[in-house]
Design goal:
The complex is a heterodimer of chains A (129) and B (131). By secondary structure, chain A is mostly helical. Chain A has a single domain, classed as 3 helical TM bundles of succinate and fumarate reductases (Up-down Bundle). Chain A is built from 4 helices and no strands. Chain A is elongated, with a radius of gyration of 20 Å. By secondary structure, chain B is mainly alpha-helical. Helix content of chain B is 77%, strand content 0%. Chain B is elongated. Chain B starts with 10 loop residues before the first helix and ends with a helix. Classes of the chains: A mainly alpha (129), B mainly alpha (131). The interface between A and B is medium-sized, with 31 and 36 residues. Chain B: Pathway: Carbohydrate metabolism; tricarboxylic acid cycle. Chain B: GO terms for molecular function: heme binding; metal ion binding. Chain B: It is a multi-pass membrane protein.
């Protein structure tokens, strides 16, 4: 970036093209918040099952509705992404794979694994439904 | 302290290694420990959910009445909410800069996580011990 002085500018988020590692990093946080919201459905599901068959039916009916399935798809993708990228963060925490080439490969592995696991889950899920 | 030292921190502060916030790496470490625990728990949970898609109430209750399933579901709930409140706290600390709003929202998130986690545990125990 040119600012006349030839010195580097610090990145400004509105004009700065995020590198893929940065995009994956903020996605990890967004999916984490999304999954935290998803615990509301988990709680509803368990509490409904503990309350009565009728309450459980209402929860199952919501989950099976179009909107429910849409939420479930989003949450399954978020869960797998957060899981895969979380494992990658644990690798980083162990002090490994910090080279740019390794980070790029990690990006591809995380995106690929999250996508494959999500599709696989839905194929199996819809088959056994 | 030796006269050639450039630090203003006392030897005791350095030895304790808890930094200015007085908590050291405890919060960070808890996030990592719960993350590691959640790897097997999440895999169990996903398989459990897939196996009980569209299950009726009797089948679902029968699943959670098995001691192993009840154990795993309680662990999943407790560790998930512990991990969630730790993560959400960091998100709030990063983006909410008004001190009062920050503290109140962190307290609210933690309270909600405790309530939801307890509700999940009680629900599983009720199913597990109930008829």
């Amino acid at each position: 970036m040119a600012n006349g002085s030839g010195r580097p500018l610090s990145p400004h988020l509105q004009v700065y093209k995020l590198p893929r590692t940065a995009l994956l990093s903020i996605t990890h946080r967004i999916t984490g918040v999304g999954l935290a919201v998803g615990t509301l459905l988990l709680t509803w599901w368990l509490v409904a099952a503990a309350t009565s068959p009728a309450a459980y039916e209402r929860a199952q009916h919501f989950i099976g509705s179009f909107f429910g399935l849409l939420l479930m798809f989003g949450w399954s993708l978020a869960l797998y992404y957060h899981l895969c990228n979380g494992i990658r963060h644990l690798v980083w925490d162990a002090g490994k794979a910090f080279e740019l080439s390794e980070a790029d490969r990690g990006n591809q592995i995380v995106i690929g694994a999250a996508a494959v696991l999500t599709v696989l889950t839905w194929i199996i899920g819809l088959a056994v439904w | 302290m030796a006269s050639n030292s450039k630090t203003l921190r006392s030897p005791l502060q350095i030895a304790r290694g808890l930094g200015s916030a007085k908590h050291g790496t405890e919060h960070w470490w808890h996030q990592r420990v719960t993350a590691i625990a959640l790897v097997p728990l999440t895999i169990w949970f996903v398989f459990g959910v897939i196996r009980h898609l569209g299950a009726d109430h009797a089948a679902f209750v029968a699943w959670l009445q098995s001691p192993f399933s009840a154990l795993m579901m309680v662990l999943t709930a407790v560790v998930t909410f512990h991990h969630a409140q730790a993560g959400l706290q960091v998100v709030i600390e990063d983006y909410v800069h008004n001190e009062m709003a920050k503290i109140l929202s962190i307290l609210a998130v933690k309270a909600l996580c405790f309530v939801l986690g307890a509700a999940c545990v009680i629900a599983v125990l009720k199913i597990s011990f109930g008829a």
